[in-house]
Structure formats: structure tokens, C-alpha cells
Amino acid sequence: MNQDIRHIITSALLLALFGIAGAGIVALVFANTEERIEANIRAQLLSSLNEIMPADRYDNDIINDTLEIWNAELTPGTATTIYRARKNGQPVAAIFTITATGGYSGPIRLLVGINYDGRLAGVRVVEHHETPGLGDAIDAQKSNWILGFEGKSLENPLPENWKVKRDGGDFDQFTGATITPRAVVKAVKNTLLYFSRNRDSIFETLKPEGVIDNE
């Protein structure tokens, strides 16, 4: 084997070794980064859930104690995830991830927490595209309007009064913006109605086969 061929083979082997080492480093970095990303997502989700359901109210792994349902009135076109809070094995509350349709600038993603007794634990906006200075008052960082749902139920107010005041209901609208709060009030009411019809099956210890049927 002449010197030129030996040099080519040596170079190729070195390149292959560098390639293998580089791929290993990239894979290691990706694995570590992926774990951190997943941990950050989990921490952010838990923080959002704990705004509605303080950690001292439950003792289960709320992020993994979930149920998925299909109901067009709650989340059109996709599944609704329900996070179930329990303490000492007993049901405490359910937190729904829903989408309010009919917003001024598109769908509004919400977390709706409902205590086992049917009263709202709280409501928070997760994502929206409503007009700054008008519809964005649904955001807890912009106003305290969304905090007014806490403690409400289908008995307070009665179902027929789950509307904004402009429509003859009990809930305030915003100055110059009625469409956005109207959509949120309707979505929260629909969630309460679903919960009242399905409470027992929602809190089953073992998840049922498939999903809960639409009602």
C-alpha cells in the first residue's frame, strides 16, 4: 500500500471517528436539553394549575391524573384534557382545558377549575388574541374581571343568568367590548353544565375505556 492510499484511509478513519464523536455529543446535548424543556413545560403547567387549585388542596400528581374527553361545546375539533385534584384519595376538583369560540379575534383558550361541589375554583386565560385595551381585559394581568368567576355555580347565578348584562345576565361586559366577555361566560357555563352531568364519571379512579360520550 503506497503512502497516498495510506494517507487517504487514515484521513477517512479520522473523519469517521470525528463524525461519531460529534453525533454522540449532539445526541447527549439534545437529551439533556429535551429533559430541561420538558421540566420547564411541566413547571409552567403546574404553576398555571396552582393559580386555580393551590397545592395544599390536593396531594395527588395532578399533571398525570388526567382524563381526555371529546365535546364540541368545550373544545371544538380536539380533545379536552381534565386535570383531577384529589386529597387522601377523595375528589377535590377538576380543571378543564377548554376553548371559548366566538371571541372578537379568534378562539380563547381557558383553564376552568370546578370544585367537587360544583362551585368554580377559578378561571384563567391561557391564550388569546383579543384587542389590547379592550378585549384583553379577560387576562388576569390586565384586570380582575376573570377573578369574578370564583365561587360561582349553576345556582349562583341560575343558568338563565349566565350572560353578560347587555344580554340580560349577571356578568359585566367591558366598555366598548361585549363580544369577548360574552364568549368567555358562555364557555364557562358550558363547562359547568358538562361537569354537573358527568361529575361521577370524571372522578372515576380508573379511566374508562375510550372517552366519555358527548352529552
What does this structure look like?
- It is a single chain.
- The chain is 34% helix and 18% strand.
- By secondary structure, the chain is an alpha+beta fold.
- The chain has two domains: 1-52; 55-202, no CATH class.
- It has a five-stranded antiparallel beta sheet, sandwiched between helices.
- The protein is elongated, with a radius of gyration of 25 Å.
- The N and C termini lie far apart (80 Å).
- The model has no long low-confidence stretch (mean pLDDT 85).
What is the element layout, followed by pairings?
Elements: H1 3-52, E1 66-69, E2 80-87, E3 90-100, E4 108-115, E5 120-127, H2 179-202
Antiparallel strand pairs: 1-2, 2-3, 3-4, 4-5
Tags for this entry?
34% helix; 215 residues; alpha+beta; 5-stranded antiparallel sheet; elongated; 2 domains
Strand-residue proportion: 15-25%
Radius of gyration (CA) equals 25 Å
Structural class: alpha+beta
| SSE pattern, N- to C-terminal | HEEEEEH
Q: What is the overall shape?
A: elongated
Number of DSSP helical runs: 2
Side by side, the strands of the main sheet go 1-2-3-4-5
> What's the N-to-C terminus distance?
80 Å
pLDDT averaged residue by residue: 85
How many discrete domains?
Answer: 2
List low-pLDDT spans: none
Oligomer: single chain
The tally of beta strands, per DSSP, is 5
Question: What does the main sheet amount to?
Answer: 5 strands, antiparallel
Helix content: 25-40%
Short précis:
The protein is of the alpha+beta class and 215 residues long. The chain has helices at 3-52, 179-202, and strands at 66-69, 80-87, 90-100, 108-115, 120-127.
